[in-house]
Amino acid sequence: MSNEWDAVTKIGRNTHNTRPTVARTQAEINAARRSGAVVATEKKYVTGNKTSDPNGQRLTKIDRENEVAPPPKIDPTVGKAMAKARSEKTPPMTQKELATKVNEKPSVINDYESGRAVPSQQVLAKLERALGVKLRGKDIGTPLVSAPKKK
Fold this sequence. Notes:
By secondary structure, the chain is mostly helical. Helix content is 44%, strand content 0%.
């Protein structure tokens, strides 16, 4: 209990915070060691265009290995079948005309024909009906046979 009476509390501007100082150069670190101060060094990772620590590069590589795989792209045979069916129409249909017919953007049709698109069953179904050619399943490129309507 006597410890509380002996404690000194400083109030005002002249009270100094005992924050650790950061030595930025090797000379400052050596001077602190000579004076007997407690010296702790930490390795910081460098960012930007400078060379970085190989441990950080290794950890980044491990992180990249755990990433989710990109979604599968459409098979190139589907794009070839689409282009062939478009050109066989009378008169030949352009990508833009096909896009307006199936209510999609021309870039979507271009992506499907070039094999860059992620397959969507809804878009493929609309393209099948517009072109009259199967684009899903085993017989890609064969004419679409409509089932007889029930009465």
